[in-house]
């Protein structure tokens, strides 16, 4: 038996073992899709960062969503805003560094909400060349009973 065939036979069960599940990080919590295409388990608390842009997360009604976007003084994040009736803003604490955006929301009703923020793609400084690009940050939050 050729060495590559043997390697393929050994690797195939390992690769197949990972099929059908997807796990992604939400800060200190993990959100996992249920096997068999079922809806993901809704968490009581979800932490989001800039790396979570474009994701959809599920939060149990009564739970919390906390957002921490690390920015810089010359590329600050705009305050996070929520649309839809599922989320209600709560106190997120203090923003310590200029350019950061911190937010927290209570999952008050079943439904869908959308969290958004943006910041300049390039640093801006008087008298220096800059660009007009914008980095968008968006997360869809599904709240379930």
Brief overview, please?
This protein has one helix at residues 3-17, and strands at residues 23-26, 29-32, 43-48, 56-69, 81-83, 87-90, 101-107, 111-120, 134-144.
Describe the 3D structure.
With 145 residues, this protein is mainly β. Helices cover 10% and strands 43% of the residues. It contains one helix and nine strands. The chain has one helix at residues 3-17; strands at 23-26, 29-32, 43-48, 56-69, 81-83, 87-90, 101-107, 111-120, 134-144. The strands form two sheets. Strands 3, 4, 5, 6, 7, 8 and 9 form a seven-stranded mixed sheet that branches. A hairpin with a 2-residue loop joins strand 1 (23-26) and strand 2 (29-32).
Q: Top keywords for this entry?
A:
single chain, 145 residues, mainly beta, seven-stranded mixed beta sheet, disordered N terminus
- Measured between the Cα atoms of the first and last residue, the distance is 56 Å
* Total count of helical runs of at least 4 residues: 1
Q: Give the overall shape, derived from the CA principal axes.
A: elongated
Helix content: 10-25%
Q: Strand count, sense and closure of the main sheet?
A: 7 strands, mixed
SS strand fraction: 35-45%
* Pattern of helices and strands: HEEEEEEEEE
The computed structural class is mainly beta
What number is the mean pLDDT? 79
Unreliable residue stretches: 1-34
Number of strands: 9
What gyration radius follows from the Cα positions, in whole Å?
20 Å
Provide the fold topology.
Elements: H1 3-17, E1 23-26, E2 29-32, E3 43-48, E4 56-69, E5 81-83, E6 87-90, E7 101-107, E8 111-120, E9 134-144
Parallel strand pairs: 3-4, 4-9
Antiparallel strand pairs: 1-2, 4-7, 5-8, 6-7, 8-9
């Amino acid at each position: 038996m050729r060495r590559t065939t043997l390697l393929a036979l050994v690797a195939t069960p390992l690769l197949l073992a990972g099929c059908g599940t997807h796990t992604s990080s939400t800060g200190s919590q993990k959100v996992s899709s249920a096997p068999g295409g079922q809806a993901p388990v809704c968490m009581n608390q979800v932490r989001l960062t800039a790396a979570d842009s474009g994701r959809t997360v599920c939060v149990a009604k009564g739970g919390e969503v906390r957002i921490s976007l690390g920015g810089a003084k010359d590329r600050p994040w705009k305050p996070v805003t929520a649309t839809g009736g599922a989320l209600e803003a709560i106190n997120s604490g203090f923003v310590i560094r200029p350019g950061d955006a911190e937010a927290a929301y209570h999952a008050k009703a079943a439904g869908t909400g959308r969290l958004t923020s943006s910041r300049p793609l390039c640093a801006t400084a008087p008298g220096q060349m800059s660009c007009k690009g914008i980095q968008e940050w968006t997360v869809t939050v599904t709240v379930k009973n």
